[in-house]
Every structure is written in C-alpha cells, then in structure tokens.
Amino acid sequence: MNKLIFFLRQVKIHPLLWFVIALAVLTARFWEVTILFLIVLVHELGHAAAASYFQWRIKHITLLPFGGVVEMDEHGNRPLLEESIVILAGPIQHVWLIGVAFCFYQLSWLSPDHYSLFLSMNLMVLMFNLLPIWPLDGGKLVFLLLSYIKPFPIAHRMMIYISFLSIILFTVFTLLLMPSNLNVWIILAFLLFSLYYEWKQHRFIFMRFLLERYYGKRDDLRVLKPLKVAEEELIVHVLERFCRGCKHPIVIEENGKEKGILDENEILHAIFAEKLLTAKIRDLLYTY
Q1: Helix and strand tally (H, E) in the chain?
Q2: Cα-based distances in Å from 139 to 19, 88, 117, 134, 286
Q3: Which residues of the chain does CATH 3.10.580.10 include?
Q4: Top-level CATH class of 222-287?
Q5: Which among 7, 221, 239, 278 counts the fewest CB atoms within 10 Å?
Q6: Segment 61-78, tens digit of pLDDT
Q7: Is residue 249 reached through a cis peptide bond, with omega within 30 degrees of 0 on the bond before it?
Q8: Catalytic (active site) residue 83
Q9: Catalytic residue among 44, 74, 83, 198
Q10: In whole angstroms, what is the distance from residue 67 CA to residue 126 CA?
C-alpha cells in the first residue's frame, strides 16, 4: 500500500491529457475519458512497479492520452532482462484488465455497451503503445534491441529513423481512415515533437550513457567485448563504438600487431576527469 501511495504521488497529468479530458467533458463522453484514464494509469503503474522492483530511480510518472512516461534516472546501463521487463510491464497490464472487465460483465457490474467500450479502448491503447515509435513502448523495445547489437549512438540514431518512418506511415493511415479525428492529430504532433527533441538531445543522451558507465559499479553484469583500435584514433571516436551491456577492453594495434591494452575506464577517465577531448589513443597508452 505504501508503494502504491508513493507511485500515485509521483503521477502528473500532461496538458495533452487535460485537453482530451476537457474535450470529452464538452462532448458528453464521460465514460470514455474515465475508462481511458484508468487504462493509462494502470499501464504506467505497471512500468513503475517493475522499475521499483529492480530498484530503479523513479523521478515521476506523466500520464498521456495514449499511455504515459515513467521518467527515471537511468541512462542505458541496466541489464537487457531488467529493461525488457520494465518496458513490457506496461503492456502486460492490459491482459489482466481484460479478465477483470470480463468478470465485471459476468456479474452485471458492466453493461454490454460499457464492456465493449472498455475492450476496444484497452486494445487501442495496447496496440498503439507497441508501435515502433519513440517514446512509445514499441520504440523503446526497438532501441533496447538495437543498442545490444550496435554501438549506442548508432542504435539511438537508427531508432529515431525507424520512429520517423513509422510516424509517416501512421500519418498516411490517419489521412486515409480518420482524417477528422482531432485527438489522433494532436497525439501525432506530440510524437513528432518528442522525436525532434530526442534527436536534438542525441549527444547529451550519449554523454549520460558514458558518464553512468564511468561512475557505475555494474561490471559484474557485463560481457567482455574487446575493441581493436589504431593508436592514432581519437578517444572520442573509440567511445562512439561502445555498446550497451558490454565492457570493452581496448586493444591497441600497430601494423596488425598488438601494442597494448587499455581498460575502458581509463578512456572514460581521460574524457570526464582529465578533459582530454582531442587526445588520441596513443596519448593514453604512454600515460598509463
């Protein structure tokens, strides 16, 4: 109960959801907005509960018309299984919600119309959240998987490209099937803004990822993935090859022969502590 109270205190309602609520009140759609609010709240509490179980640092929960955002002080260095569970903990809530609604319907606590409305809205929120668009759950899953097979900054850019393409396709779908649906256009505008903001924050997000690796103490959870580099290569270029979930021994080669090995923490220390932003790998080799 204390956890639930804590989560509810973190909840904030985005102005976009307030707009949808006001629109629903003006058009006498009280049941629709009540059901939507309940579904979105349960969805986000699912994310928050999973994050809390793994002792993630939750800042606040923002509710949106199609889901929400659980903002956490985590920057891409948690294990794959943990992140997958936290992301999927939202969509999985829609499954038991269907079961509860069915029980209420069987007990005549829900009318056939309200039961049908609940099922359709529950499915709508679920399917929409699984679209491969950032910051939806589908987009987060795409980024998570990409960042385990590609260097972090490349995976982040690929996720943005995939999200933008998906938004274009969804816009075409909207134009063809529901061009007069104001709510959908508002949500599309919000997604485009979120994606643009994510793109503008690309370098900052990458730096936070590296900074968390530098100060973090989760080396026991990482697999070793050596990076072969030339001694003339810039340190910042080597950092751009870092992947999520891996610890990178830096193998320095000259003419195909191994010349030395650096730990990734030595490179991170050079950037964040010594501010050697333009240094080359050979500078560290002779220093350490």
Answers
A1: 13, 8
A2: 25, 12, 27, 4, 43
A3: 222-287
A4: alpha beta
A5: 278
A6: 787 766 677 777 666 778
A7: no
A8: no
A9: 44
A10: 9
